[in-house]
From TrEMBL:
PANTHER family cross-referenced by the UniProt entry: HUEL-CATION TRANSPORTER (PTHR13414), PROTON-COUPLED ZINC ANTIPORTER SLC30A9, MITOCHONDRIAL (PTHR13414:SF9)
Protein name: Cation diffusion facilitator family transporter
UniProt domain Cation efflux protein transmembrane: residue ranges: 18-222
Keyword Transport in record: yes
Length: 326
């Protein structure tokens, strides 16, 4: 699921759209919370602030990740995006979930008198419309990249966290708005402001769950994940097709960035191939591989006897390997 330039530009559009929506509705939520004393509305205001900060961090991470490779970082800075995605997950858990649960507990312990909920309903309705628009854009763009895979499989295999983070955040935001609305209604219907505090805690628990899921996916990208199995199969097929290749011992890959893959290939060459012919063949294979898989930024092809390759240590987690005898 490597991203093309067009898809990366669309990711920016998704992030900017989510940022604009969160900034606008965040202000409205805080105003409504100040006028009505609603705990769940105040929680939603903090939720919008955290989401806005997250989009800024992801945009910053995308900009930093585009820096070209240099002597200190020969494979580029692509994983910086993965680092900031992990920071976003931590912020959602520490600030978003933490503040929501604390505010809800405080409101249960010391409930505030109820006031007219009308302004809360108006703000919630507007927020739902804006968040729904952002969510629709995120779903549409992610749906284009996932192909025939299921949603969870596509998220798990995605190498670009920007798309699925916005999708998770917007889904949590819509769920939070529904819970806030139910909490405000129930507080007035049963004349018990503590219900509003319980709604705030429920929102915090949803944010905590989202944070854990995002941290899990971001951690895998940060420590290094293999390329899609279809990409590995394509590399293996191209190398194995050369007549002078006796066998492809293994293909190990790792994503250096969402659109940058490093591939290390071990192949058993025919003993009749000379050093000069082998160099020419390797150059031809690299050209063919880059044409078939444009996201291959670095290719390492190592001539190695099959019996020696089988003695090599197993690949690290996430490296990806295929081994086949022709």
């Amino acid at each position: 699921m490597a991203k093309t330039l067009t898809a990366r530009i669309k990711d920016d559009i998704v992030l900017y759209g989510a940022l604009a929506a969160n900034l606008g509705i965040g202000v409205a939520k805080f105003v409504a919370a100040g006028m009505t004393g609603s705990s769940s509305m105040l929680t939603e205001g903090f939720h919008s602030v955290v989401d806005s900060g997250n989009q800024v961090l992801l945009l910053y991470g995308q900009r930093k990740a585009k820096r070209p490779a240099d002597e200190a970082h020969p494979f580029g800075y692509g994983r910086e995006l993965y680092f900031w995605a992990f920071v976003v997950a931590i912020l959602i858990f520490a600030i978003g979930a933490g503040v929501s649960i604390f505010e809800g507990w405080r409101h249960i312990q010391d409930p505030e008198p109820l006031t007219s909920p009308t302004i809360n309903y108006v703000v919630l309705a507007i927020s739902f419309a804006l968040e729904g628009s952002s969510w629709t854009i995120a779903v549409r763009e992610f749906s284009k990249t996932k192909g025939d895979m299921g949603w969870w499989s596509a998220i798990h295999r995605s190498k670009d966290p920007a798309g699925f983070i916005v999708l998770f955040e917007d889904s949590a935001a819509l769920a939070g708005l529904v819970i806030a609305g139910v909490g405000i209604w129930a507080s007035h219907a049963f004349d018990d402001p503590r219900i509003d505090g319980a709604a705030s805690i429920a929102i915090g628990l949803i944010l905590a769950l989202v944070a854990v899921l995002l941290a899990r996916e971001s951690k895998g990208l940060l420590i290094g994940e293999r390329a899609d199995p279809a990409v590995i199969a394509t590399i293996h097929k191209i190398v194995a097709a050369h007549p002078a290749i006796v066998s492809v011992n293994h293909v190990r890959t790792v994503h250096a960035a969402p659109d940058s893959i490093f591939a290390a290939i071990s192949a058993d060459f025919d003993d009749a191939v000379t050093m000069g012919d082998g160099e020419t063949m390797i150059e031809a294979m690299e050209t063919e591989l880059r044409a078939a898989v444009p996201t291959l930024s670095s290719i390492y092809i190592r001539p190695e006897k099959r019996e020696n390759a089988t003695l090599a240590p197993a690949p690290a987690s996430g490296g990806g390997e295929t081994t086949t005898q022709r």
